[in-house]
Each structure stands twice: as C-alpha cells, then as structure tokens.
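Exercise 7.
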Amino acid sequence: MTTAEQIVAIIAAFLSPEPAADHFPVLAAGGADPRYPVAITRCALPIAPLEIEGKTVLCGTVDVPADYKNPTGNRYKLKFAVYKAHSLVAAKDAVVHLHGGPGGGIVDDVSLTSFAFAKMRERRDIVAFDQRGVDASGGATRCFETVADNVETFTGIVTGKLPAEALKKEVVQACIDELKARGTDITTINTRDNARDVQSVMQALGYPEYNIYGISYGTKLGLEVMRTAPEGVRAVVLDSVAPPHIATYDTLMTPHDEAIKSTFEYCRTDPACDAAYPDLETRFWALYDKLNETPVKVAGADFNGTLLYGVIDLRNGWQSSFRGLTPFVPKLIAELEKGETATAAAIINETLIPKNNAEELLGKIGSLPPTQAALARAALVHAKTMGETDGAMKSVLGELEALRRTAPDGVSVVQLFEERLLEAAKSIGEKSARIAFATDYLRLRAAEPDRALLIALALRYFEGTTRDTIASLARSLSDEELADVFRRVSTDNTKIENVLMESLELFLYMCQEDMDINSVEGARAVNQTLGLSKQIKDNAEKQLAELYATCGIFQRLDNPGFHDPVTSPIPTMVFSGKLDTQTATSWGPETARHLPNGRSVVFPETGHGALVFSQCAIDIGVAFIENPAAELDTSCTEALKPKFILPDAQ
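Solution. The predicted structure, written as tokens, is:
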C-alpha cells in the first residue's frame, strides 16, 4: 500500500533529483573492478511506481569480454539493474537473480523484479542482468537486415495472421550469416561464459560475496556458476530447476505428465475424494478421447478433450486465470462424463472461484449485529477508498515518471516527425510499396543517426506536401533530436524484432549446448513411458523434430563435462512445484541429491517459479538466504495441498 511518506519522497525526488553518485558512488565512478567497466544508463519505463531511479534503483551496463580466453578482444555490454535493500543496516551479500529462458531478459521489467523480490530485498540488494546475447544485452545478436528482409512474415506473426511456424529455419540461417559477417562469434553465447559473466557482474558492482536466486534456465546457469566460477558465492536457491545432466528437450512432456498425475494422486490419497471419484486418471483420459470425438457445448463454444487438457495444464502460471482450479478438477470430470457443464461453464466464464472485494462484502454484512455491521461497513468503505486511491496514485506517479523524461510541455519536433511519418505510411496504397517502406524503415535501426537517410525515405515513398513536410521536419531536427528518432525506430519495432530474437536466443543455447544429449529418438523413447494421450505426444514429437532440424544449422560446442551432475558443496535450496509444466517436479530432488549441502522442497499447488506462488515459498527462500546452515521449518507446504470439492458441494 502506498504511504503518504513514500509519495512525498517520490515527488521530492522528481523536483530535486539526487545524482546517482549520492546513493551508488562506486557504480557512478565506473564500478569496483576496472576489468569490467560500469556505465550508468536510464532504466526502462515503466519503473515501479515506488522506485526512485538513482536512489532506490539504478540501471547500467557492465562491459565484459566476449571470450574470456581473449580479454582484449570483442566485448559484450550486459544491461543490469540494482535494487537497493530497504534496510539501513543491509547485509553486504546481495542476491543476483538469474532469469529464465534461455533467452527472455528481465532488466527492462523493473516492476516485476521489484514485486517478486520485495521480501528478500528487505535486508539485501537485488541485482538483475540480462544474459549475453539476450534482450537488453543482445546488441551483438541483432539481425537488422534479416528482420528488414522478412518484415511481412514477422508482422504477420506479431498480428496473429500467420502462425509462429511461419518462421522458417532459412530465416534463422540468414540471421546467423548476418551475425558472422558482422564479426559476432555466436559460439561465445553459451552457459559457461554466462557463468563467468555472473562473477564479473557481481565483482564490477562491488559484491565480492553474493547469493544466487535462479529460476528455470537460470537454475542451469546457477549450477554452472557453482561448478566453474564459484568464488564469492555464499548460498544458492534454484527455483524450478532444469539441471544440465537431464535432456530437458527430450523430456519436454515429462513436466506435463507429472503435473497432471500429481492432481490425481492427491485425490487418490484423500479418502473422501477417492471415494467420491475413484480411478480418476483412467476416467480423465477416457473423457479426453470422448470429448475430442463428441464435444459438448459450454458457454456457447465446443468444449473438447484438448480444451479439457488445456484448462488443467494451464494451472502452471502464477497469473493464470486457471490458478486455484485443482480442487474442482474431480468434480469437473465427473460432471462432463454425464454431459453436465455447470462447473465447466463457471471455469470458462471465470466465475468458479469467488474473489472477495469491498462491494460484494458490503452487500453481505447485514447478517452481523448492528454494532459489528457498522464497524465492518466503515472498514470496508475505508479499504475500498484506499484501494482506489492507491491504484490512482501509482498510475499518476508512473505517468509523472514518463513525462519527466520527455521534452518540455508541448509537442516536440521528434513527436511531430513520428506522427507525420506514421500518417504518411498508413496512406501508402499498394501492399508491395508498404512492405518496401517498412523494410527501409527497419534498416534505420542498424544505421548511425543521419538526417539524409530520413530525407531519402520521404523522397522515395511520398509526394507533394506530405513529402516536403516530412523532409522539412527531418532537416529541422537537432543532433540530439535526430539521435532520439533513431533510438525510437528500434524501440517502436521491438515486437517485430522479437519474433526472430526470441527464437534465436533459444537456439543459440539449445542447439550449441544440448543437442549431444537430445534427439528425436530420445524424445520418442521418453514419451513411451508417459501416461499422456498419443495425440499429445505425437504433437510434441512433431514440434521437437522441427526444433531439432533447425539446430542442424548450428555448430555444437565442445563442452566436456557440461552434462555431468553438479556436485558443488555450496549450500543450496532447490524449489519445485507440483503443477510445474516447464520443469518437472522430480528434477528438483534429483538435482539436490548430487549436492552435499543441497536441500529440496516441493510445493503443492505451485507452478513454474515457486517464489511468486505463495508466502510459504517466499518465507523459506528468505530464511535460507539469511542463514543457509540453519534447520528450516518447511511445514507450511502442508497447507498448500488441495482440498477437493465433493459432488454435493456448492
């Protein structure tokens, strides 16, 4: 909840911004290690409303070698964000968050890190950085020409007019060729060099001793840090672990199989549930086949077996509308077997799980005695007002932060140029001309700021007053405004570029590192051991076959020992969720058993990334980081087990 003191502090910071040197003196001076220079940059918008850039959070880059065996060669700039601890007597050992993927950064989502690590941040600084070749740290892997040459395909995928499969391996090959021609050695995009980067970033930021919190691919990276760059690591939390010694692509469907089976197992071991819904797993798959043959109408749409599977499978996400569905799964199956759709309709319409709010509760307090009702009414009205005020205040603060970065009041020349160019582009009639314009426009991302390029764009595609207006605006841009236009070209087209980059980032790690232990035959052998339907397994094998075919254009890295289990003595806590469909529940205990000081905790009703699913996971993680050697009480996990809805329950 936003406090008056916080709001006053933020407005004061806007009015009289304090230089970063006052709060981050080491980083403002270039960092703590001259081998890895630090430069301060602006954080991506929106910043979390209660963060003050330069005071509570600071962003920048750390310059590291592309090849640690050749420290004087090419360099990568890794984008980072440091979130200062809330305590005035903070611990000196920060927590570095290793994000998932491979690919898909975290630095530009300041508010997510601020939220997810709020409790851990009470005593420790939190550090986040985008890994080499990824998102904000991916400057060296941007395929400007390839994106421009395939703008129609990428735009179609972004808008949903084309399937993701429209991205062919020939396009990925063209991107690789472009990178090589530009001098980028893609073999340096790998987990072992990432592990060195973790150490380099923390040294550069002034943390000789630190802790790791890795999620998903970040757990594989964390394990590699423990194995090859362990100096300075105090304790490690591996959340939703993907260990290097497991063929995580061949076992793509193992997490799905385990997540569904765990639900049926919880019912089987609950006497009341088992009595009401016996042999639930067999019945589920029989119902899956039946509904695929003859769907039933639910909320005006066909409810088939694939949708039934999807509803249950999608409990994995912490923001999913299907989160919390498990207690209703047996009742859902039993009803659909009889052609009844009440529970299914409530799921689709998102009315199944009641959500308390002030308005609904105000209508229910009449049953209380008069004095209690009056007090309850006053409290609820106050809570409703606080909620509305808090939301409005955060919105206003976010807008103020954005406006503080823009030009003075009024429309700037940059904004006017962008508006006129966009209006003109929309008026281009022929499809071929629109594609040609988009191609040339996207090529500006790879160019140095040059007003002649903007004028040429206007002369090539427009006529008359439109042409002259855009060309005149380009001539009137100051050097700073010109640079801003070119920066915006990249920013405004991020979604188009990400169609390629998200796939490339995955392939760089997957194809170069993991294809020695993954294969189509291996995936088929794993699938034969699973209880999933043949249709689901066949679809998975087809998807993997396409991925593996694309991997054929990459060179495999020589990685001796990379797929051996990690056996580091560093104190390690391993988290797994029973509903995780991205990393299997069983991989957590399997990873921990190789670690002499490893402990494993499995969380019921928890999907991918246990940290954001429950206070139980947060508290265990914080307690472990605070004292890695202490015995921890993990009994709070028992309260997370589902309590099933019986047939006669409302």
